[in-house]
Design goal:
There is one protein chain. By secondary structure, the chain is mainly β. It is 0% helix and 48% strand. Strands 2, 4, 5, 6, 9, 10 and 11 form a seven-stranded mixed sheet that branches. A four-stranded antiparallel sheet has the order 1-3-8-7, with no helix packed on it. The chain starts with a strand and ends with a strand.
Length: 124
Amino acid sequence: HVQLVESGGGSVEPGGSLRLSCASSGGDSEIYCMAWFRQAPGKEREGIAAINRGAGMTWHDASVAGRFTISRDNAKNTLYLQMNRLEPDDTAIYYCAARGRGQCGTLTTRNYIHWGRGTQVTVS
């Protein structure tokens, strides 16, 4: 079955950068869309970026557009999220998610099937 493992989280000062990675295994044929979600304390999980298998199409939520960039390397089975100009409001647990063919840009938790356990990002 599909396994997703995030890494790269940590603590950073406002204005700093981090790059998150998500390694996938166990079901390459089941993965077409991949996405990043985040959940801040006391808030619902929200989708912030998505990418299709060929990496020709990406979606970024308005809250991160221009600061965050999603990308993937299919040869390495790895998804990335480059986060620049981080703000305290970006503090959250960041989750990697995946699904088969479908509406990659529909950034809802119901639209994604496979989930990682998350990595903490703290901006302060």
